[in-house]
Write a structure and sequence with these properties.
- The complex is a heterodimer of chains A (202) and B (98).
- Chain A is an all-alpha fold and 202 residues long.
- Chain A is 79% helix and 0% strand.
- Chain B has 98 residues and is of the alpha+beta class.
- Helix content of chain B is 55%, strand content 18%.
- Chain B is built from 4 helices and 3 strands, in the order H-E-H-H-E-E-H.
- Chain B has a 3-stranded antiparallel sheet with strand order 1-3-2.
- Chain B is elongated.
- Classes of the chains: A mainly alpha (202), B alpha+beta (98).
Chain lengths: 202, 98
């Protein structure tokens, strides 16, 4: 009996199931860079806020707008880098960049993330600042867990880590800045390195 | 005999295996997606999907998106069950031989 042929069949089946339902070309390198941007952004924020007349952050126009600009730049650079490097990797893998699986991934990532983003803006408008860092971490974590079903499964663990840090942050709002640094900076670098060595180098 | 009872003739071709694999994990797949994933020609995909349709393992739905015709495929319940049985039979066969 030709069990070798059947074994090949089974492998091909597994491969097709994976390829047709998951977008696997996410770049690990872009995770590392996102973490680096976050650390640089946080360092800038730290310097700006400690050198201002007030050493804490409130919605007093100038400093707050600088911080928003800082955050916006981090997000913009991270997303830009991720799109660029992922496109490059997908092309190398012969995978389509914008197909059913990548669309599904983006939608499932964006729904919780945008919900969280809007919610944070709403409560900032109501002058509740204390939980901002915690909410950013929690919603980002939920977005990652949700998206992980449609991509490399390991992202789920980054999501769990972010949610965990977010909950700690909610308990100790005074350390919000440092937990934000840990979650968006250090964790991105750690997981980015992990993904890079596990998937990109092969 | 025995162990090869569940090997299903309807799936005994790599294109058919491929179609079923994709439809097991996706609710729908359209013609173009399947063609690209499996790397087959139009005619090849059409004839193998027709065979699976006749066995009532998949449903072929033809519809229009705007003015463009669009064909999409979906696995039926009996198709999914039959494919699972087939995979289990393959697995047993391989384990038996090792």
């Amino acid at each position: 009996m030709d069990s070798k042929k059947y074994l090949e069949d089974l492998n091909e089946i597994k491969d097709l199931m994976q390829k047709s339902s998951r977008f696997i070309s996410l770049s690990g390198l872009s995770g590392i860079l996102a973490g680096v941007y976050a650390l640089i952004g946080a360092a800038i924020a730290y310097v700006v806020v400690t050198n201002s007349t007030r050493t804490y952050l409130i919605l007093d126009g100038y400093i707050f707008r600088l911080m928003l600009l800082d955050l916006f730049l981090i997000a913009f650079l991270s997303i830009g880098t991720a799109i660029f490097l992922t496109t490059r990797k997908a092309r190398k893998n012969g995978e389509k960049i914008w197909d059913t699986s990548s669309k599904r991934l983006v939608i499932n990532f964006l729904v919780p993330l945008l919900t969280g983003g809007l919610y944070i803006l709403i409560i900032l408008g109501q002058q509740k600042y204390g939980q901002t860092a915690a909410l950013m971490l929690i919603f980002y974590g939920i977005a990652l867990v949700n998206a992980s079903k449609y991509s490399i499964g390991d992202i789920r663990y980054l999501g769990y880590t972010e949610i965990f840090l977010g909950l700690i942050c909610a308990l100790f709002p005074g350390y919000g800045f440092w937990l934000w640094v840990a979650g968006f900076g250090i964790m991105h670098i750690v997981y980015g390195l992990f993904m890079y060595f596990k998937y990109d180098r092969a | 005999m025995g162990i090869i009872n569940n090997i299903n003739k309807a799936f005994d071709h790599r294109v058919r295996l491929g179609i079923m694999s994709v439809l097991m994990v996706n609710e729908y797949a359209d013609f173009k997606t399947l063609k690209e994933l499996l790397g087959v020609t139009d005619g090849n995909l059409a004839s193998h999907s027709k065979a699976l349709e006749q066995a009532e393992y998949i449903v072929i739905e033809k519809r229009f998106i705007g003015k463009k015709p669009n064909t999409r495929y979906r696995a039926t319940k009996s198709g999914k069950t039959a494919f699972k049985d087939h995979l289990n039979a393959l697995e047993q066969l391989i384990n038996r031989n090792e």
